[in-house]
């Protein structure tokens, strides 16, 4: 049984280099309390450590905390990454008070969680695919969820410095897998902020950070808030590049993190159904809209999360996949569009002609619009929707407009269109 205190480790997570340091409680942490494992990605092995609940507390499903370490803990010894948060949650009193699984994959010295400059104040677009190291985290996470008694409604992601960048990246790629994200002194791509709608986020950054510009957190927080996404932001006055000491400290974010639960959020596998009332009126016209053979789902930045929801649900319901594109790509007849308009006359409006266009006031309304659009298309065969116009007293308020085309339909068919539940309402 070897302790971290006895190991000759340099344990700083500073991006700019390594410096001797140690977290409170690290001397009592035994490396062997963390089970060793590894996953293979692209022919390379990525080691990890897993802290499990104490035996007397392992009788029930427990949360999983996915921790992404900083640059100073890179390597292949499968120990250095146990600094900071693992050292905190590995303390006996925390294992009793906050029982959980904690997964800490170690990034190789020549890799990063996210291939982006750490010291730049301006972000880069989210890469089309995660880095190999981040894919290793995904593989390891799937393994732990499949083989341990993990509470799937309470899976959290957090990381510091280089790991703060990784936290933003992983949360944007898998928002429905997590109940909360806690990025510390990192940065993300504000263009992907719409993907994070509905995910509770707490952001911590030192106001005097000279390694990762505090502007990286400020921009992400401002973008999310502009989209109507609530974010807890803690900018620590006078604190440099070690905000994690406060974030993971006794008065930090851990109580908030462990209080987040997808059951209360109605997200992920706990998303609920909401019954849609019958239309208040329907006036039939001729024709129908059909999703085109090479159709795409086009969404602006604010409504991207709704577009992703629509595309995922469409695959589950029909097996049909639509490419998700930004508004820079012009839509074509047969496409489905999602737009956010804060000054829209009604919370949700769906206009169906040669395209299906969902316009919503805010992110939540867009999600409801996505569910309504999916229901409309899945009510009729061959991914089509009858044309015409009808109004319905939706729970969030809204109006559906359908028009154009060449086939007749009835008001009764329109009522059938919205009689069943909205997905993820």
Summed up, what is this model?
The chain is 24% helix and 24% strand. By secondary structure, the chain is α/β, with parallel strands linked by helices.
Note the topology.
Layout (H helix, E strand, L loop, with lengths): L33 E8 L2 E8 L10 E7 L16 H5 L2 H6 L3 E5 L26 H16 L2 E11 L1 H12 L6 E5 L17 E5 L8 H12 L5 E5 L7 H4 L6 H6 L2 H4 L13 E12 L5 E4 L4 H15 L4 E4 L9 E5 L7 E5 L3 E5 L2 H17 L4 E9 L6 E4 L8 H7 L8
Parallel strand pairs: 3-4, 3-5, 5-6, 7-8, 10-11, 10-12, 12-14, 13-16
Antiparallel strand pairs: 1-2, 2-4, 9-15, 13-14, 15-16
What does this structure look like?
The protein is of the alpha/beta class and 425 residues long. The protein is built from eleven helices and 16 strands. It has helices at residues 85-89, 92-97, 132-147, 162-173, 215-226, 244-247, 254-259, 262-265, 304-318, 363-379, 411-417, and strands spanning 34-41, 44-51, 62-68, 101-105, 150-160, 180-184, 202-206, 232-236, 279-290, 296-299, 323-326, 336-340, 348-352, 356-360, 384-392, 399-402. It has an eight-stranded mixed β-sheet, covered by helices on one side. Strands 1-2-4-3-5-6 form a six-stranded mixed β-sheet. Helix 9 packs parallel to helix 10 (363-379). The longest helix has 17 residues, at 363-379. The protein is globular and about 70 Å long.
């Amino acid at each position: 049984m070897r302790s971290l205190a006895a190991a000759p480790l340099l344990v700083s997570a500073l991006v700019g280099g390594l410096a001797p340091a140690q977290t409170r409680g690290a001397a009592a942490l035994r490396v062997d309390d963390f089970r060793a494992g590894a996953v293979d990605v692209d022919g390379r092995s990525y080691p990890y450590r897993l802290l499990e609940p104490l035996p007397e507390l392992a009788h029930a499903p427990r949360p999983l905390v996915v921790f992404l370490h900083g640059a100073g803990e890179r390597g292949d010894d499968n120990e250095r990454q146990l600094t900071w948060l693992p050292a905190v949650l590995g303390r006996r009193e925390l294992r009793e008070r906050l029982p959980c699984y904690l997964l800490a994959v170690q990034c190789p010295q020549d890799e990063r969680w996210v291939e982006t400059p750490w010291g730049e104040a301006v972000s880069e677009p989210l890469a089309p695919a995660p880095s190999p190291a981040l894919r290793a985290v995904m593989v390891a996470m799937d393994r732990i969820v499949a083989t341990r008694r993990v509470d799937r409604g309470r899976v959290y992601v957090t990381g510091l410095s280089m790991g703060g960048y990784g936290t933003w990246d992983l949360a944007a790629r898998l928002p429905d897998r997590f109940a909360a994200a806690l990025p510390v002194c990192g940065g993300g791509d504000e263009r992907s902020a719409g993907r994070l709608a509905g995910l509770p986020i707490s952001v911590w950054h030192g106001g005097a950070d000279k390694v990762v510009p505090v502007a990286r957190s400020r921009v992400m927080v401002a973008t999310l808030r502009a989209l109507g996404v609530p974010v807890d932001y803690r900018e620590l006055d006078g604190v440099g590049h070690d905000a994690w000491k406060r974030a993971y400290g006794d008065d930090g974010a851990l109580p908030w993190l462990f209080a987040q639960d997808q059951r209360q959020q109605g997200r992920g596998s706990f998303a609920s159904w909401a019954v849609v009332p019958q239309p208040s009126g329907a006036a039939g016209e001729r024709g129908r809209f059909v999703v085109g053979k090479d159709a795409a789902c086009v969404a602006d930045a604010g409504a991207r999360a709704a577009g992703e929801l629509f595309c995922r649900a469409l695959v589950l319901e029909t097996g049909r996949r639509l490419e998700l594109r930004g508004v820079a790509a012009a839509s074509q007849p047969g496409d489905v569009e999602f737009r956010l308009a804060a000054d829209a006359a009604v919370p949700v409006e769906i206009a169906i002609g040669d395209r299906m266009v969902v316009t919503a006031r805010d992110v939540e309304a867009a999600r409801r619009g996505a569910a309504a659009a999916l229901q409309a298309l899945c009510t009729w065969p061959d991914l089509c929707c009858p044309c015409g116009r009808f109004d319905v007293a939706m729970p969030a308020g809204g109006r559906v407009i359908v028009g154009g085309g060449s086939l007749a339909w009835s008001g009764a068919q329109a009522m059938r269109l919205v009689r069943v539940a909205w997905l993820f309402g």
